[in-house]
Amino acid sequence: MRLRPRLYEIVVLANVLAVLAILRTVGRLPGIPWDLLAGTRVFLAPLAVFVGGAIAWRAAAVAVRDGIGRSGRFLAATARPASFLDLLRLFVFAALAYFGHVWLKIMVPFLNPRLLDPALARLDAALHFGLNPGPLALGLFPWPAVWRAMDVYYAAFVPLTMAGLAWFLTAPSRPERARFAAGFALLWIGGAWLYVACPSLGPCYVFPADFSEALRSFPLQGAMQNLLMGHYRALLSAAARHETMRIVPLLGIGAMPSLHVGAHAFLALFAWKRSRPLGLFFAAATALTFYGSLVTGWHYAVDGYAGLALAFVCWRLGERVPGPGGRSRGRNIPVGR
To answer: What is the DSSP letter of 328?
Structure first.
């Protein structure tokens, strides 16, 4: 199998090199931090589990629809060297995109320390006729039972997104895999650089009084918000005292844009013409995630709008990845095939 670098892979590598340069200059890390790169296993291990589940689900769907023999042929095709190596290649670049995203997000307060929360709050009010979208969203469904359900749903973002990522990375068509991987990687790379361009903490930190009453119904989100802010303050304090500390890259804070909203919107867009039920599912997930981002105080409404716009741009760019014969848009592939 002849391997040629895909354009998005070059972008991912360039982003990793830029982040490594930042870690070396701003973070004063000597050489290549192999231990930090090895930290991508916290992303790859669960992804491998979800990928295995996606392959099993696809095989079961084929068995129900077309019989055990067809399912066996599907599994044999998935295990062929060309298909397996392509999946491994996707794993590597997904891990590199993850690395670039989390470490760039952690470095935001050192690259651009000016917080834009007041400006984002004013923009929110201007776009919503003087109303504050967070308290407004809380007032739409002012029932603690709804808030507690949203608390649990929002906490399920990672497994739900991992499931969508695994599903499309195991598509039988390798060009389809590449289209998805390209767009999804660009979403997280672009989102991280927007964190640098528009640094913000989010309304739960800057305007806590707006959410103080409802916070009792969001124990999971409240605990996570406290964890992130504790890490953020410890990081700034250690830097001010020129001390070292153990950095947890998953605990970066950034509100603009909302990649919770953007990730689910991207999954909905990519799925729409390939599996309408899956597209509808992630469209509903996008709406719920947008609502959750407001009522929990994680995001301003404009963060969600920016996430939607970024998802659309990255989806369109991903769809332009060439397939066989130079075609940029792949054919629709039924679920399970």
So the answer is: S
